[in-house]
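User: I'm preparing a small set of examples for a lab meeting where we compare how different chains pack in three dimensions. I only have the primary sequence for this one, and I'd like the structure in token form so I can line it up with the others. Please keep the answer compact; I'll paste it straight into my notes.
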Amino acid sequence: MAQHALARERLFALRETIARLEGKPAPALAAAEREALAEGGKTPQRAILPPLAFGVECLDEALEGGLPLDAITEFRSALSRDAGAASGLAMAVAARLQKQEADAGRFLPLLWIGDAVGTLEAGRPYVPGFRDFGLSPERFLHAAPRKLDEALWLAEAAVESAAFSAVIFEVRGNPAHFGLTESRRLSLRAHAARRPLFLVRQAGAEEASSAAFRLHVEPAPSGLRPLPDGSKLSGSIGNPIFRLTLEKSRNPAPLSFLLEWNPHERQFLPVAEPNLVRPPGEQSAHSGAQLPASANGPHRPPAMGALLAFERAS
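Assistant: Understood. Below is the structure token output for the 314-residue chain.
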């Protein structure tokens, strides 16, 4: 018994030392554990937060129920031109979270921390269009720090405060001052405050981080806008569609999905791959599966029209 008590005291001392190094008071959780153990009770157990489900069975199964609400989830775009897709998916997930919390009687705001370089490339969030996308503009706050260090400090303070339903942290590329150590600090704060942090990485490569999941996001062609009678409006543009690849998870290999975002219902819908028109012979970036080819043949490019012959100049 004495050895167990000594081990607990060492654990408490270690936590307090880490808190002092980070410029914080002793963690409240450690203080609560010490008080409970001093009274002869058991260590208090925190209730498990239910994950935020996409509502798509195959994707939620791969995510073990959905996105965790006390951890980091990374939405990565490999190219600058795909930054809007990564931002759009993060916004759609935040809108779904807002709806879930509103149904529970909670109306916390959402904080977007922009990246100075990323804003020059992809622009700022367009607040007037939020309502059409499913978000509540009156519950949206935007911060524009000038430096990455300031953005990191703000992200840590915002997550730790638990004053926001979610914090969206935008990062451009793979900066040297935002690596595994900084990601670990954000992850610890998200877990302690029981609040999610959505990391939007523009034009960045895969790297080690403390994110629970990482999704590679690409835009996909939208269909036609549906009419009340079930027909499609010719020449129109329907709901946005995202191509997701689950890069970091417990699955042994990356998994790809196509999701349509319905902003009015604030729900995701699965999209079948053959419904998208893609060049013949093009393959998926991860699965390598051959897509349906055109009538010209399995690997033959489409005809370019009639051939014309010209008289050779002498």
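A couple of notes for your slides: Helices lie at 2-21, 28-38, 57-62, 83-103, 116-122, 130-133, 148-161, 180-193. Confidence is low (pLDDT under 50) at residues 274-302.

User: Perfect, thanks.
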